[in-house]
Structure formats: structure tokens, C-alpha cells
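User: Reviewer 2 asked us to show a designed sequence for the structure in our supplementary figure. I'm pasting the C-alpha cells here. Could you produce the per-position amino acids so we can include them in the response letter?
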């Protein structure tokens, strides 16, 4: 179904909770104890050491149970099956415009979006100002004009296509762990990655090339690992202040203190990508994913803002890929929500429980729609987490 950072703020909370307890409280206790009981120092040190060792053992024990319940590495036969399927997908002849044509057949009432990215010379149509972010540009016209003026016109988009493009959208699901798909994923023409899905330590499972990294400010990598010279960064704008952040990233300036207050998680202060490789996702892609593909209700204005169901970045990436690619495969998509203790991502220990608490996204609806696309053959699911056509 979906991918990585759809856990949103909940994920952030979980990450914070799973950090080891800070040392401060222990020291504070130690001071009061020391002051209260004037015992010989050596006894007190011994006492402290025993406490620290017990805490250490407890942490090890917890980590161990976590491993037993959570991490399930793919076994040999499963790995073989997946590898054979991916090889068969790569061996097929690439069919030009295949994914887009099929999606248009599946969703006949949906009008194709004119351009996937916003540029200086983009036609900002009336339709684009109908809804606020992330579905449109309502009320932020000056901001958008300002930012489009500073980004150079992309040359790669204008020069058109270089042959038939076979793409893989790499989701951040734990299903990728131990599958050792890296070398096969690297063979796709275009590799889309989401948010901070890392490549360095995990290249055996997820490959190391990145053609597009698509992310919103809070989800962007704090430590940048991509070294692919082709990489383009696709900025996904969910709220008005995201444009201030992007402006700072493009101009190499600091994100202001006031702007920082509006982010629910720390945002990177620097994105090491050339100005000419930064793209702004057209909000029409998100609107189309939500209203046309997922059939979410139209956003409604309420007293305190807008009431809307927002697609995950994974679903949005699949729709974007239909404009950038000829054929689309998914890897690392799909969560098994009935395995509550199992990990959510291939790179951390956040568990499925975090996903179950998520209310902003409609994960079940997304799974159903992706399943339909896969069953119809419009998109291939390489790891079989949404719909397994090779199991
Ligand atoms: C914008 O619209 C005009 C007229 O409809 C067209 O000539 C032009 O190519 C469009 N620009 C882009 C970037 O699509
Ligand atoms: C990926 O790894 C291969 C093999 O280690 C290496 O030759 C290649 O340069 C790497 N590519 C990127 C973009 O990191
Ligand atoms: C999800 O996990 C449950 C419990 O382990 C299992 O019975 C079920 O088959 C899994 N579903 C899928 C689609 O893998």
C-alpha cells in the first residue's frame, strides 16, 4: 500500500520515546543520595555501578525481545522467488507510456495534469488556486511566484525523454529487509526514493542509486547520503511555511526561528543539491491522487481551517511516476497491520503500532486502490506486500 513517512508526527514521537533514557536524572539522584547518606564514597560508587549494570542488562533484554518479535529476515526461498520475479520484470520489453495509459483507462474521469513540477514558465491555472495546500495554491500566490522566480528552468525536462523509462518507486517498508534486492533495483532506469529512506548502510537491500528523492521538509534527510550525480530533489509542499524552508534551501540561507516553530519535527538546515536539480511537486499531483485515484471527499472549509484527507507520500509518488516513467514497479510497499509488533521501516525500529494510530491518512483505501492497479497489471509489486502476483 504505502510507504515510509506516512506515520507523520506519531513516528516522531515514537523515535523520541525509543531513545535511551537521558543520564541527567540518574546524576541528580546520585547527588541527593550522596548528600543524604554520608557513607564512604566507595560503597556509593559500588551502588551506582550495580544500578548502571542492571539498567544496561534491562536495555539488552528489551532490545533482544524486540528483535525476536519484530525483525523477521526473509528466508532463502522467499528471496529466490522475489529475485526471479524482479528479473522477469527487468527482462520484459519496456512499453512506452504504459503506466499513464493504463491509469487513464482505470480512472477515465481524471484529467491528466499538465506538468508534474512547477517551473518559472508554468501555467498557473485557475484550477490550481481552488484549494489550499497540499491540494492547491490558494492564498499563497505571492510566495509561489517568488520561489518560482529563483529556481532555474530545468533543462532535463525540456529535452524530453531518453528512451523508454522503467522506474521503481522504493518505499520504506520493512519488507525490504534481508531481500538483498539492491543490485536488481539498481538496474532500473529511474529510482524514486521517499523522505529519508537511507541508502548507505542498506544498499545491499535497497540499492544505492537515487534519481529522484521526494520529500516534505520534516521528512527530508538530516544526514544526506545520496551521492548519485543524477539526483533530483522533489520538494513536496504540505503547508505554507514549507515554501519558506524551500526558499532557504535554494538560496543557502538559514531557516528563520519563527518558521521553525511551525514544523512538527526538526527540519534539515541544508540540502546538498544544486539549484537546477530542485523540483517543486505540482500540488495538482496530490489533488489528483486524493480526489481522482483514491476518491477522497473534496476538501471542506471549516471554521478553523480545512478538513481534508491527505494521501501518503508513497501514493503521491506512484501518481508522479505515471508522468515521469513508462513502466512502474513498486518495492517496499505494503504494511501488514495485523503484525503489530513488527517493524514499519527497513531502517529503524518504529513498530506497526505507530501506523495504526495514524488518522491523517487512509491507509486501507490506499491499499485497495494500489491492489487494483497491480491486479490490472498497470504497476508491478516487486516485493508482493500489496498484492503478490508471484506467490
Ligand atoms: C502555457 O500555456 C500557453 C498557452 O496555452 C502555451 O503556449 C505554453 O506552452 C504553456 N506553457 C507551459 C510551460 O506549458
Ligand atoms: C553503487 O555501488 C557500486 C558498487 O559498489 C559503485 O560502483 C557505484 O559507484 C555506486 N553508485 C552510487 C551512485 O553510489
Ligand atoms: C499478516 O500477518 C498475519 C499474522 O502474522 C498473517 O496471518 C497474515 O497472513 C499476514 N498477511 C499478509 C498479507 O501477509
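Assistant: Here is a per-position design you can include in the supplement:
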Amino acid at each position: 500500500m504505502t510507504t515510509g513517512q506516512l506515520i507523520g508526527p506519531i513516528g516522531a514521537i515514537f523515535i523520541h520515546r525509543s531513545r535511551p533514557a537521558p543520564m541527567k536524572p540518574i546524576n541528580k539522584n546520585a547527588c541527593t543520595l550522596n548528600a543524604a547518606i554520608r557513607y564512604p564514597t566507595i560503597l556509593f560508587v559500588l551502588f551506582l555501578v550495580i544500578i548502571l549494570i542492571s539498567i544496561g542488562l534491562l536495555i539488552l533484554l528489551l532490545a533482544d525481545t524486540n528483535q525476536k518479535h519484530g525483525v523477521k529476515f526473509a528466508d532463502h526461498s522467499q528471496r529466490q522467488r522475489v529475485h526471479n520475479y524482479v528479473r522477469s520484470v527487468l527482462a520484459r520489453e519496456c512499453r512506452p507510456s504504459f503506466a499513464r495509459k493504463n491509469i487513464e483507462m482505470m480512472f477515465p474521469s481524471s484529467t491528466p495534469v499538465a506538468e508534474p513540477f512547477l517551473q518559472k514558465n508554468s501555467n498557473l491555472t485557475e484550477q490550481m488556486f481552488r484549494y489550499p495546500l497540499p491540494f492547491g495554491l490558494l492564498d499563497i500566490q505571492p510566495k509561489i511566484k517568488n520561489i518560482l522566480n529563483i529556481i532555474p528552468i530545468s533543462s532535463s525536462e525540456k529535452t524530453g525523454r531518453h528512451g523508454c523509462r522503467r522506474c521503481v518507486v522504493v518505499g520504506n517498508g520493512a519488507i525490504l529487509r534481508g531481500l538483498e534486492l539492491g543490485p536488481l533495483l539498481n538496474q532500473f532506469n529511474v529510482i524514486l526514493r521517499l523522505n529519508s529512506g537511507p541508502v548507505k548502510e542498506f544498499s545491499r537491500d535497497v540499492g544505492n542509486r537515487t534519481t529522484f528523492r521526494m520529500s516534505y521538509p520534516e521528512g527530508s534527510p538530516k544526514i544526506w547520503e545520496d551521492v548519485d550525480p543524477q539526483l533530483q530533489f522533489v520538494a513536496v509542499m504540505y503547508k505554507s511555511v514549507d515554501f519558506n524552508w524551500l526558499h532557504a534551501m535554494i538560496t543557502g540561507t538559514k531557516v528563520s526561528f519563527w518558521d521553525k516553530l511551525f514544523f512538527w519535527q526538526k527540519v534539515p538546515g541544508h540540502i546538498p543539491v544544486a539549484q537546477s536539480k530542485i523540483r517543486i511537486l505540482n500540488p495538482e499531483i496530490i489533488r489528483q491522487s486524493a480526489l481522482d485515484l483514491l476518491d477522497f471527499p473534496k476538501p471542506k472549509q471549516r471554521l478553523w481551517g480545512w478538513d481534508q484527507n491527505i494521501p501518503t507520500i508513497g501514493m503521491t509518488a506512484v501518481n508522479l511516476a505515471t508522468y515521469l516513467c513508462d513502466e512502474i514497479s513498486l518495492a517496499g510497499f505494503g504494511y501488514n497491520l495485523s503484525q503489530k509488533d513488527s517493524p514499519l521501516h527497513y531502517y529503524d525500529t518504529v513498530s506497526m503500532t505507530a501506523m495504526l494510530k495514524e488518522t491523517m491518512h487512509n491507509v486501507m483505501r490506499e491499499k485497495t486502490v494500489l491492489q487494483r492497479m497491480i491486479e490490472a497489471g498497470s504497476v508491478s509489486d516487486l516485493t508482493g506486500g500489496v498484492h503478490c502476483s508471484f506467490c
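For the response letter, you might also mention the following. The first helix runs from residue 8 to 18. Confidence is low (pLDDT under 50) at residues 1-38, 64-71.
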